[in-house]
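S1.2 Input.
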Amino acid sequence: MSDIRIATPEDQILLDKEAKYCSYGDTVHYIEPPRIFSRCEGSYVWDTEDQAYLDLQMWYSAVNFGYANPRLNNALKQQIDTLPQIASQYLHKGKIELSEMIAVDAKKKFGLDGRVHFNVGGSQSIEDSLKVVRNATNGKSLMFAFEGGYHGRTLGASSITSSYRYRRRYGHFGERAQFIPFPYHFRGPKGMTKEEYGSHCVQQFARLFETEYNGVWDPKVGQSEYAAFYVEPIQGTGGYVIPPMNFYRELKQVLDQHGILMVSDEIQMGFYRTGKLWSIEHFDVQPDVIVFGKALTNGLNPLGGIWAREELINPKIFPPGSTHSTFASNPLGTAVGLEMFKMTSEVDYGAMVMAKGKYFLEGLQDLQKRFPIIGDVDGLGLALRCEICGPDGFTPDKATLDYMVEEGMKGDMVVDGQKLGLILDVGGYYKNVITLAPSLEISYPEIDLGLKLLEQLLVRATKR
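S1.3 Output.
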């Protein structure tokens, strides 16, 4: 095991400048000293010393299709030479065709007419969805959201994100959320199956509507004070928690009975991360609004947006100028988005992702059998989780996972004579979950390599 890594003189000069000139508000320093990266390709990034790291989180699922994907990069390059920019109040072909592609797909899958509205990223698109929801519900500003849910750090988005630390310094700005327990079966009551626990959580939520004195429902007029329920079908920052398959179907019945909209946040799980274009497709429900971002452009360009039902977003109810961003529906982003849809239509990404995910999950399950500190593993497609616990296999152990992350970033592990680092992401309610989001293009040998590197980290962790 190596000692603490020291920054090179060249990197230290840059780090000293960062300490003086850069806001730390847009940066998270998970390790010290922070790495400075110089290039990337496929499932790998290289630092300034040309040390390779296998990346199993792919920029929080923004780079679903691999770093420097040649086809998507070329789409961006070609657009730069034709129409690289145009003010968002003007039309261009890419915006219209990409909107059509998303809306036609939603009609096919959900049987609903709808429209697409663009913005520059996930949090900004959450803000737009809040406008759509409030406008459609006569200005209601109260929302339901889940414990463990994450929807962004702008003022509106942080108000419906369950972590108080994102609001503590800034307070609320309009929206407020009531946070509802998510069916996190591994940490749920003992003696229930996963499906029974899902139904139990829905029943506890439905109880809020039994009487006016539970604070959310006026039975005399049949109206709720709450406008929408914001859901991540599979929790992202919360630790890639996968609910039982009956959960959203039962939850949506309660919402529909009480006139409450369902907004599906697909920012992290969209674009085939779970083997479907949208992760909500696994659960046999019709969302009222879908919010997307990140992997739409494979991280090459900031572009996000929403799809909403026609009744919520048609020009009569949501007229021109309802929201605006200078860079919304920018031609570079829409060109990459269109190429992404063309690329995924030519190959059965759903089958490919599910097969790779099954293979990866089996490898994690094998590690779980051999390392008692792995309390839980689960996965849907290539959204996988590995919960690190104490020797009892249940008590959350954040310190051990922090150690593993730091060890992975030393870049000193050796597999088949190759020196490598491993990039992991930390999530979970207790920050003790490895949230694995590898490239959808990851090869089976690279999955094997990732499992071998994880095994080395687990060995180090148990021997320290």
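S1.4 Remarks. The longest strand covers residues 374-380.
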